[in-house]
Amino acid sequence: MLTLNSMFSSFFLWLLLIFSVLSPHVMEHAVSSKWTYGVNYGRIADNLPSPHSVVTLLKAAKIKNIRIYDADHQVLTAFQSSGIEIIIGLPNEFLKDISVAEDRAMDWIKVNVQPFLPATKIRGIAVGNEILGGTDVGLWEALLPAAKNVYSALSRLGLAHTVQVQSPHSEAVFANSFPPSSCTFRDDVAPFMKPLLQFFTQIGSPFFINAYPFLAYKNEPQHIDLNYALFKKSPGIYDAKTKLHYDNMFEAQIDAAYAALEKAGFEKMEVVVSETGWASRGDENEAGATLKNARTYNKNLRKRLLKKKGTPYRPKIAVRAYVFALFNENLKPGPTSERNFGLFKPDGSIAYDIGFTGLKASSATSIRVLSFKGIGSSYILGFTSCFSLLLLLAL
Predict the structure, then answer these.
(1) What total of structural domains would you count in the chain?
(2) Count of alpha carbons within 13 angstroms of residue 166, beta-carbon side
């Protein structure tokens, strides 16, 4: 008969052995690889859940990367200790003022960024949104100095290594994008775009593009195959110059951006999709804006992003994208589609099924079970079996 001390000594020796075998696998699950699926959290609405409820919703959906379009303190406070990484926005209306002097950028960061770090994982600042190619040329001129001042202020505060500076663009910056290899920046945009890209290359920032197959289809439904836009089976397109075939428009739009960057001299810059999505409702003249199409696009997009694959032209660079949007925004101006891009309803339930569960009442037990799922049932089973065997051996 073993003594009590020897029994426990044997038990803990075996326990250490088991964890030495299992720990690499556990760590493999605990340390997340580079993200590919994020969501834009717009809030131009009067019926949305509280930011704290949004954190619960995102955790239930296992969404770990979001963008917001401002630096709302209530949101940033709610996301403290959530583990969710956030890109905040420096709205367009602040650009001209921030571009004047670094001290103005410093003041903005000291109020809207620094107090929330490190508890809130602010990982980037989007300086403006869809500036170049827009109607206000004064903002075109302010964009680069504003971005430089924001980066300089971050550097002085020792934050530039964790908070990246970016600026999302619309497809309006391109002169053409079909076929993808022919894409170039507009002649009037290029003098502003190239210095901006040079700066982003120096600080290691990617190229952010808002890519919407929905908008392309809506504008030219007679020329674009809906199946091609929705990731469904279709003939696709063939780019004769690169000899590459595209079976979906999303990847073609990304590779068009890569082609434009390459022609401008920035072939090593990564493209990140800062917005993409599909409206579930629209006006009579908004072709394709249906719930069925929104579900199909977003479900297929999610599957595609979770594969962590590249595009035909850049196969080694996994596509990363922020889906637009988390909720329908009932106060957004413009056509009906603008208010109907949401994946979720204001009560936290799903707008349509693409694999998310939405907010549900959960017991403490079910929460614990979900946390174990992250480790893997096979490892839990193995640990339980070994634990039982050790008890038998000890006795």
Answers:
(1) 2
(2) 30
CA 69-71-75 angle, 5° bins = 95
Query: Do 324 and 175 share a domain, yes or no?
Result: yes
Query: Is 130 marked active-site?
Result: yes
Q: Distance between terminal CA atoms of the chain?
A: 8
pLDDT tens digit sequence for 359-390 = 643 233 232 323 323 333 333 334 444 444 44
| CA 20 distance to own-chain centroid | 35
Query: Tokens at residue 339, please?
Result: 């208010």
* Catalytic choice (102, 171, 251, 275): 275
Q: How many other C-beta atoms can be found within 10 angstroms of the C-beta atom of residue 186?
A: 16
pLDDT in tens, 315-335: 999 999 999 999 999 999 999
Spot the catalytic one: 130, 171, 251, 286.
130
CATH number of the domain residue 116 falls in:
3.20.20.80
Q: C-alpha 148: how far from its chain's center?
A: 23
Q: Name the residue type at position 379.
A: Y
Print the domain residue range for 21: 1-31+364-395
